[in-house]
Amino acid sequence: MTQPNNYPLAPELETCAWFNTEQPLLLGALQGKIIALFAFQMLCPGCVSHSLPQASALQKLYPTTQLQVIGLHTVFEHHQIMTIEALQVFIAEYALRFAIAVDQPSTIESQPLTMTKYQLQGTPSIVLIDKQGRVRLKHFGHIHDLQLGIIIGRLLAEPNN
Amino acid sequence: MTQPNNYPLAPELETCAWFNTEQPLLLGALQGKIIALFAFQMLCPGCVSHSLPQASALQKLYPTTQLQVIGLHTVFEHHQIMTIEALQVFIAEYALRFAIAVDQPSTIESQPLTMTKYQLQGTPSIVLIDKQGRVRLKHFGHIHDLQLGIIIGRLLAEPNN
Amino acid sequence: MTQPNNYPLAPELETCAWFNTEQPLLLGALQGKIIALFAFQMLCPGCVSHSLPQASALQKLYPTTQLQVIGLHTVFEHHQIMTIEALQVFIAEYALRFAIAVDQPSTIESQPLTMTKYQLQGTPSIVLIDKQGRVRLKHFGHIHDLQLGIIIGRLLAEPNN
Amino acid sequence: MTQPNNYPLAPELETCAWFNTEQPLLLGALQGKIIALFAFQMLCPGCVSHSLPQASALQKLYPTTQLQVIGLHTVFEHHQIMTIEALQVFIAEYALRFAIAVDQPSTIESQPLTMTKYQLQGTPSIVLIDKQGRVRLKHFGHIHDLQLGIIIGRLLAEPNN
């Protein structure tokens, strides 16, 4: 973290639906906040047992004025099954309260657009974006609560510009 | 358990698909074995976190010569989403190995046929059937592993006829 | 379990103190009940995290008219530390409610007398004694709740004599 | 955290023994590092099941050049049982690897000296000390890993002076 100016800017999310938010969230409009983006699929066991509960806990711990938790449903397989309608039921049954976007499907490949833009390897993945809109962490697989917390704490401590 | 002759005979399952078995299982052909029937829905959080792992553990502990574990996908809501195709992916992703049947949908009501026949209240539910094909336990919600084990152990100890 | 007459009779416990019981429990006086004997040491992490919670759960599930849970503090190391006074505090802090005996120390070796009589390998160990006072299970290490339950259920189903 | 100059300086620990360190740790010599001080008693169930595993996880995640984890055995009850000898066995059995100090007993009251100096209410308690040796968090009871991580991350991000 010695040369923060070298961190890449987080590309805007490409989405086709949102849940738990009155309007779509634009990263550009969230500058000044830390964004914790949790990429998941509703039929990914590791997401269900570890990643989504972590996202929920994080959302409860911190006000959205400082930290914005966003779930991103990045369907890269079984598209006919993990539909927007199925996701809606999933969100209700699992009582997820944080903002959740559906990654825009590609017309030419199985990976959706945001997943490709961010070069995510699979689910669960977590992306942390700093106050200036730069990608500071991209992690595939689960990450320990303590470790994630320490990284977020560091980012929260940074100046706004 | 003092008047076992009073226990109702378990009605045959009404099913429209099976997984993890070469052919559909008929209760009538399983006499002499204990049957542990786990009714679930793939979008039921309590089923995913407690009941299905319990069914898997039970299947691993006991050979099917004595105890037959059967999962029953009793879809009573969100039928358009919890389809047979979705269940197939779910079974693969969660690596479930025990025999799983799909409860036959009703043409007139949301509850499927077996669920109605057995008067199940919801998911998860567990039904234990003894060696003579009688319903000995019908439980809605999770049941402690020790408690379930003790009941199964008692049934295993009964004579075959 | 085909030749139950071959199972060895459980030798009487050799104890020097009891907790959570008005008077010492004699195996001979418990005939007709299943006895679940949990050998432990208060400074054994596996006992604290798995075995003692299992004993507590078992005690809560079944009335002592049918099943008697007994903890046995089998100190075979660090005798100066795992004293009766320390055990008393441990039982209070961990809110253990089942009957607990202290295995009688040997005057000539580190293993206490009951541990030697039962040829226990270490802690945690569980011993199941049937209604006729015979040892039916002796297991070193943790045992899955379902598996333990099934064995106990089988023993509960046996006739009293 | 707007007026950091108002945070009280962490008083030096009063100790009578140390484990897992070649020499006693002086807070004064740790300036520039974050110190996570976990006050515990070996017969405190909440410490054993939550707080000490958290301390171990924290120690593994961060090098001691930036973050120093210290366990503090603050015996305020049952002094005859939770002796230094008993603690030594406890540390070995639970495989604790981080530095652990024994809080110096008082000659006049049950609370040991450091516990009194820091006005700790009981165990488990956690105290976080910043790079300049000031107390920034004092928490009685367990604290969520994410929450603890975020606070530590903020402290790690502060300048050394």
Task: Name the features.
homotetramer, 161 residues, alpha/beta, Glutaredoxin, 6 strands
Model description:
4 copies of one chain form a homotetramer. With 161 residues, chain A is α/β, with parallel strands linked by helices. The first copy, chain A, has a domain at 7-43 and 84-132 and 145-161: Glutaredoxin, CATH 3.40.30.10. Chain A has helices at 45-61, 84-93, 113-117, 145-156, and strands at 15-19, 34-40, 67-73, 99-103, 125-129, 135-140. Chain A has a 6-stranded mixed β-sheet. The longest helix of chain A has 17 residues, at 45-61. Chains in contact: A-B, A-D, B-C, C-D. At the A-B interface, helix 1 and helix 2 of A face helix 1 and helix 2 of B.
Radius of gyration of chain A: 15 Å
* Secondary structure tally, helices of chain A: 4
Largest sheet composition of chain A: 6 strands, mixed
Strand content of chain A: 15-25%
Strand order of the biggest β-sheet of chain A:
1-4-3-2-5-6
Mean pLDDT of chain A: 95
Q: Which class of secondary structure composition applies to the elements of chain A?
A: alpha/beta
Domain Alkyl hydroperoxide reductase subunit C/ Thiol specific antioxidant (chains A, B, C, D): 23-136
Protein name (chains A, B, C, D): Alkyl hydroperoxide reductase
Pfam families (chains A, B, C, D): AhpC-TSA
GO molecular function (chains A, B, C, D): antioxidant activity; oxidoreductase activity
Short description:
The structure is a homotetramer of 161-residue chains. Chain A is an alpha/beta fold and 161 residues long.
